[in-house]
Amino acid sequence: YTIWFKDLKKQLYCCLCKDSDESCLDFHHLDPLQKDIGMKRLSGKSPAKVTKEIVKCIVLCANCHRKFHAGKIQIPANIMAGDFLKEVKSPLIKGTLEHLQTKGVHRLKV
Fold first, then answer.
1. pLDDT (tens place) for every residue of the chain, 110 residues total
2. Which of 2, 14, 27, 65 has the smallest number of Cβ neighbours within 10 A?
């Protein structure tokens, strides 16, 4: 998934501090119970499988992600319920999302 995934990450930014350096962006699962597979294990998987997992997430930079898990910062409710993928411009990702939505897979709401 390397090329299209890098293209996706170039379109995103941390929902807390707005850092947009794709090398620093993480996907944080909103509900750990909904996590089917960790992002690191998605290497080599299809865009559909990866997208199905990331729609359960929000984007955090590495610093904000670590601070959140350390209990130093909170994620505001409006961000927890937002949909970062609406800003994605990639036709491949948009097509994959549309396909998943026809199968009944939608973004997790908290």
1. 567 777 778 878 898 999 999 899 988 888 888 877 766 677 677 777 777 788 788 889 999 999 999 999 998 887 776 555 565 555 656 666 666 566 555 543 32
2. 2
Residues 6+ positions from 50 with CB-CB distance below 8 Å: 1, 5, 42
Cβ atoms 49, 97 nearer than 8 A: no
Q: Are 57 and 30 in contact (CB under 8 A)?
A: yes
Closest CA to 92 of 25, 1, 22: 1
Asked whether 50 and 103 are in contact (CB, 8 A), the reply is no
| DSSP 8-state symbol, 37 | S
Supply the pLDDT for residue 64: 96
**pTM, 2 dp:** 0.72
- Give the model confidence (pLDDT) of 86-103 as tens digits: 655 556 566 666 665 665
| Residues 70 and 28: beta-carbon distance below 8 Å | no
